[in-house]
Amino acid sequence: MVQVHDKKFRPFISREAIQKRVAELGRQIDHDYEGLRPLFIAVLNGSFVFASDLFRCITIEAEISFIKLASYKGTTSTGNVVTAIGMEENLHQRHVILLEDIIDTGKTLSAFVPELLSRQPASLRIASFLTKPEALKYDIKADYAGFEVPNKFVVGYGLDYDGLGRNLPELYELAE
Ligand code: IMP
Ligand code: MG
Asked: Which of 25, 96, 104, 172 suits a disulfide with 9, CB 3.0-4.6 Å?
């Protein structure tokens, strides 16, 4: 058990299992993107550990860049607007792979994907370390998914609970 802030978490997915699965995703992406020089875009903060491990499993020519998503209430009736901070890359005709730590409800990405598509990449896929199918509320799907997890709060491997826990090398789940 580990304590993060006021809550206890128990080991859930081991470091070895994570490394094995991330290497599998790397091989799959290597195979799918051979000759296409994909551009990975990692969504900070949560995906930095996954991005770092996955990118080092890629052996084909590839680039990586990092963005932060800021969401705020828009002035239009559509509600939340999500903009990317730090996205200077020209995406036109690029094969883009978005890297996320977890797709929970899918809200963040469903707001951001249209903005990405408006920059006319040649293709766009999503690689997420985790997905929580039971929590999904928006029409967002990971093309590459590390692990499906139940609808429980998890920390470690880049994911935080109120800022802490990102440095845990394995994944932990909330212990009730
Ligand atoms: P979504 O917009 O609901 O898909 O939420 C995605 C974001 O919520 C992720 O990028 C995480 O930052 C955060 N999140 C969702 N579930 C968890 C969790 O179990 N642990 C830590 N962060 C989470
Ligand atoms: Mg987060």
From this structure: 172
